[in-house]
Amino acid sequence: MKKYQLDFEVKDNKHLAEGYHQLLLSPIDLELPEMYPGQFVNILVPDSKTTFLRRPISVNMADYDRGLLSLVVKEVGEGTRHLCDMKCGEKLNIILPLGKGFTVDFEAGADLLLVGGGVGAAPLLYLSKVLSERNCNVRVLIGARKSSDLTQLEDFGRYAKVEVTTEDGSAGVKGFVTHHPWLQDCKADMIMCCGPMPMMKSVARVATESGVKCEVSLENSMACGVGACLCCVEKTTEGHQCVCTSGPVFDIKHLENF
Q1: The pLDDT value given to residue 53
Q2: Interior CA angle at 219 toward 54 and 189, to 5°?
Q3: What is the CA angle 68-58-25, rounded to 5?
Q4: Which residues pair with 249 in a beta bridge?
Q5: Do the beta carbons of residue 192 and residue 169 sit within 8 Å?
Q6: Which of 35, 25, 76 minimizes the C-alpha distance to 55?
Q7: Contact (Cβ atoms closer than 8 angstroms) between residue 168 and residue 146
Q8: d(C-alpha 30, C-alpha 42), whole Å
Q9: DSSP alpha helix (H) spans, 59-180
């Protein structure tokens, strides 16, 4: 799949929740390149004296009708803080699309369960849109610590049936995503998951015990995005592989640590 290094203009910067921002970006010189759900981009952080490496951010949505790329950024350090502070009209240099995405080649009527936690829910929005356009039955289960951490629920509701869990019980089912009936009585053709590693391993364990296929999107530290720096290597059944090129999405049966 062809990769591009393009300049994008910030069209909007929406504050979603504490520490979470949604950037809406438009390519300046070319049309928005084709991207698949689960792929990511690498962003050069502008005007930062200490951030030298690009920051990998998953594709939240690709809106080809409006030519807009949506990215959800969680503020965790100086690099992402700069991105969260971007103003309309400012420019970002981005390499895209990168990595291997989720499986989307399903027949109509397939029952698919998408499970996300924290900023890991972001790539599931584009995935839910693509799957719904294929006339699949899509359910999205999102876990958070508290209700104020939940974002984009209305957006997800356009494409799927949505349920939530919160650790403090302030919204949805109290507890972790594995406490929700959708995973307590796991019935689906496939589960697709992205979020904190402990959550993904718990979901993968449920899927294995239930005999359900499962894909997870790993969030290893991906410095270069093209397999050159070897920072994101993961042990798989086929040896050590770079998450940024062989993933970030993997079938759990190919992951040694799952």
Answers
A1: 87
A2: 135
A3: 20
A4: 217
A5: no
A6: 76
A7: yes
A8: 17
A9: 78-84, 122-133, 153-157
